Amino acid sequence: MIRRQLGVTLSGAIVWMVILALGGLFAAKLMPSYIEYFAVKKMLTAMEESGETKGTVRDIRNAFDRRNTIEDVKAIRGEDLEITKEAGEAVVTATWATKIPVAGNFSACLDFMITTAK
């Protein structure tokens, strides 16, 4: 009875290592943008829960900027927020785009949008 050998060939291992390295590079480049996205989402949720979205447009922008001094988000500021009224309540929307160079002339373009509308 002949037993087949089990295992990974050297070329197969190298291919998988290259794929994992490229995936890791891509994830490492995109991670800061997603961290900022979740920071902005957290700020808008906290503003809504504390009632800071009930003031004037200027008050809302100032409240966002105050929170942003702690979070240190570079992608968006209070003046970039879109603030509208719907059903008598202020709806705050933050939209921005980020272009991240990955390697050579290959870039990832990410579009983010967060709103307090329910």
What are the main properties of this structure?
3-stranded antiparallel β-sheet; 118 residues; alpha+beta; elongated; single chain; 25% strand
In brief, what are we looking at here?
By secondary structure, the chain is an alpha+beta fold. The chain has helices at 10-50, 57-71, and strands at 82-86, 89-103, 106-115. It has one domain (10-115).
Major β-sheet, in short?
3 strands, antiparallel
Indicate the radius of gyration in whole angstroms. 22 Å
Low-pLDDT regions: none
Strand fraction equals: 25-35%
Count of individual beta strands: 3
Class computed from helices, strands and strand pairing? alpha+beta
Helix/strand order, N-terminal first: HHEEE
With helices defined by DSSP (H or I, 4 residues minimum), what is the helix count? 2
- As a percent range, the share of helical residues equals 40-55%
* Number of domains as seen in the coordinates: 1
As laid out across the biggest beta sheet, the strand order is 1-2-3
The backbone outline, from C-alpha atoms, is elongated
Please characterize this protein's 3D structure.
- With 118 residues, this protein is of the alpha+beta class.
- The chain has one domain.
- Helices cover 47% and strands 25% of the residues.
- A three-stranded antiparallel beta sheet has the order 1-2-3, covered by helices on one side.
- The longest helix has 41 residues.
